[in-house]
Every structure is written in C-alpha cells, then in structure tokens.
Design a protein that fits this description.
This protein is of the alpha+beta class and 238 residues long. It is built from 6 helices and 13 strands. Helix 1 (6-29) crosses helix 5. The chain is globular. InterPro entries: DUF6882 (IPR049249).
C-alpha cells in the first residue's frame, strides 16, 4: 500500500484536533523523565507518576512498519495490555479501514510532517479509544505506543483560544477535510454549531459567538470570535 486509505484519512481528520488537545493535557500531567513499563500489569511510570496503559502497537524504524500489539507474537490478542485495544480492529473491519486490520502496516512510503507514519496510526487509534492520550515509548530500533486509560488524567475541556492552532496542526497531519476536523472537535465538546461549505458558526458556552472560515477548497483560513469565553475547567475522568 502506498498512501493511507480514504477511510483512514477521513477518520483521522475527524479525530485529529481532539487527540492533539488531549495530548497537550496529558503532557502537562505526566512528567517525561526516566520511565518504566509493566505491560502485564498495564502500568507506565515516569517522574513518580504511574498511569494505566494498554498496548496499541510498535513502529520499527529500520523497516518503517507498524505492528499491532495483537499481531506481535510476544503479546497476541489475549494479552492483558492488548485486549482493551481490540475495539480498534473491530472498527476497522466494520468501516473497511485496512490500517486497523492489517497485522503489519508498511509505512516506507510516508514522507510527511509527522516523525513517521506510525505516529498517525497511533493518533487515530488513540482517538478511537478516547481515553487520556497516548505515549511513544522509545526502545532500541523503534517505539512502542501505549494508550493511556486512567481516570486520574484530566480530560481536556473546551477552550476556544487554541482552536485555530489545533485546527492548523491537525490539518497538517490529516489534510483530508478541515471542516470535518472542526466538527469532530465541536462534537466532542458538545458545542452547538451550524456548518456550510465556507463557514462554521458556533455558540460556545458562556455567551459570545465564534466562526471558522474556509476557502473554496475547504482549507481553514480564519477564526473569528465575538467574545472569548473563559476556558472550562478540565473535568476529571471517572
């Protein structure tokens, strides 16, 4: 395969801004210092903080391939760290997302803004599982990607201020349809909106209004806010 499938691109576009925002929240909560992981116990510890994780898969730098945890002979789909991720494969089967059902995905073709194609698979997979974000844990020859599923990690709350930055970052990684990216972010935060080809209007909680403008090719070009509502406090996952 050369290039991601259309189904994967569309899903990634819908989830990318949500994932990027949650990654920022996770980075503030979890120190990135010397770390250790016990996948049988489903724990990852760094800087004195321990969180519950599951295994998404791993990226091999030399081969430039992504290997799902359920396809890794060291683990398999019955491993405690893998079982919570099997919903990703099930979704792939239902929606025809080959990246989620192929045991080892060839990413040697990828030459984009992410460090490697495995980052985008980890992003999309983490978005499917929701949760608190994902961690890239480096090892000799590549990186293992862990999904954080722990109620002690705060959930990112609605904040209109970083929306333009999140949209720009998401569109650089998943440029399929920026309007879908914004719709995914707004739906995630339960923000009412009205969307047309070149304009998305929303009414954030706390009053005021905001709108995102897109050009004739669907690219995000501007964000306007009448009055920015204060950021909602991050909700703790229960």
């Amino acid at each position: 395969m050369s290039g991601f499938s259309p189904a994967f691109e569309r899903l990634g576009a819908a989830l990318a801004a949500v994932v990027l925002q949650q990654q920022e929240t996770l980075a503030e909560f979890l120190p990135r210092e010397d770390w250790s992981a016990d996948l049988t116990a489903r724990t990852y510890a760094s800087g004195g903080v321990t969180v519950r994780v599951s295994l998404l898969g791993s990226y091999a730098a030399q081969e430039r391939t992504w290997l799902w945890g359920w396809a890794n002979p060291q683990f398999g789909d019955a491993h405690p760290a893998v079982v919570p991720t099997l919903a990703i494969r099930a979704l792939g089967e239902r929606l025809g997302i080959t990246e989620f059902t192929t045991p080892e995905v060839d990413l040697s073709w990828y030459d984009g803004p992410a460090g490697h194609g495995g980052e985008l698979i980890a992003m999309a997979a983490g978005g499917v599982l929701r949760g608190a974000g994902y961690i890239g844990a480096g090892y000799d020859g590549g990186s293992a990607y862990l999904h954080v599923d722990d109620p002690q990690v705060p959930a990112a709350g609605w904040d209109p201020i970083p929306v333009p930055r999140l949209l720009a970052g998401a569109a650089s990684l998943f440029p399929h349809e920026p309007r879908l990216t914004l719709a995914g972010l707004l739906s995630h935060h339960r923000i009412a909106y009205r969307q047309s080809d070149e304009l998305t209007e929303l009414r954030p909680p706390g009053g005021g209004g905001a709108r995102a403008l897109f050009d004739g090719l669907g690219r995000f070009v501007d964000w306007q806010a009448d009055r920015l509502a204060p950021a909602a406090p991050a909700a703790v996952r229960g």
